[in-house]
Amino acid sequence: MPPSYADYRITSPAAGADAGSGPAWVAEPPSRLGRDGAVVVVDLGPLDEAGWAVLGHRLEELASIRSPRLPALIEAGREPRGGQSTAWASRDHPGARPVASASVAPGLAMRAIATAARAAHELHEAGWAHGDIRPGTVLLDGEEGLLDLPLAAAAALPPAVTRVVAPEDLDGAEPDRLWGAGATRASDIYALGALLHRQLTGTLLHPDLPRDPVVTAVQRVLVERPRVDASLSGPAGDLVRECLEPDPARRPATALAVAERLEQMAPA
Fold first, then answer.
1. Cα–Cα distance measured from residue 261 to residue 253, given in angstroms and rounded to the nearest whole number
2. Dihedral, CA atoms, 242, 246, 252, 255, nearest 10 degrees?
3. Pairing assessment for the beta strands 138-141 and 144-147 based on DSSP bridges
4. Which of 163, 215, 138, 192 is nearest to 45 (CA)?
5. pTM for this prediction
6. What whole-number distance in Å separates Cα of residue 115 and Cα of residue 138?
7. C-alpha Rg value of the chain to the nearest Å
8. Lowest mean pLDDT among 72-76, 139-143, 251-255
9. What SS3 state is found at 105?
10. What does 1-31 look like in DSSP terms, one character per residue?
11. What is the pLDDT of residues 164-217, one digit of tens each?
């Protein structure tokens, strides 16, 4: 565990240890910020001057998107680490945990995913696609849902396509993403469907992914049709199948539409 990033003092790993983009840590913020309580610092990896300029512009855009369903981006910086210049960003909600980090009742999971879908819609309306919706980036703060900031998308520079924490994280990757297409509204809706399937059934659309090397996992998602668990029926099953339609035009038109349907069907 690093002792610090800039003048943030690291105290422990963040819940889930990934925080959606890279190694993440709970930290005490510097007094200059005048903030009470801890924050999360996310390591975004090494970046050269050109990469940092691009990232800085993207983070400015991201910080301008205000939503109670997204953690607030506090600030970002670079510092020497391991012989390279490493970028980092800090955000609030240090106690939020990934929705898959503990046993979560179906109703709570559906409400959390609905909130994440609303947050994704707000990003879409601001010209962003999240590009990394998965169990590690949909968060619970108590019983309130959050969608973690798309820091992975902000920090990814060409020729990067998507970031893989573990092979099973590719379960929600639309195949077109892996062919090199950028993240879109439609690919985020596909990912929401895959996440809903995983939370309600406990199974993957591609069940063999956890045993695959990353290269094999990518090939599997490209050529293998997703397998929806036969036990998933009714309105939730219909929604999952619509989100996973191979033709993006046949998926729900917006993430907001996904959220509204989930809110209607989620048990109290």
1. 12
2. 110
3. antiparallel
4. 163
5. 0.93
6. 9
7. 18
8. 139-143
9. coil
10. --SEETTEEEEEEPTTS-TTTS-EEEEEPPG
11. 668 998 999 999 888 877 889 999 999 999 999 999 999 999 999 999 998 999
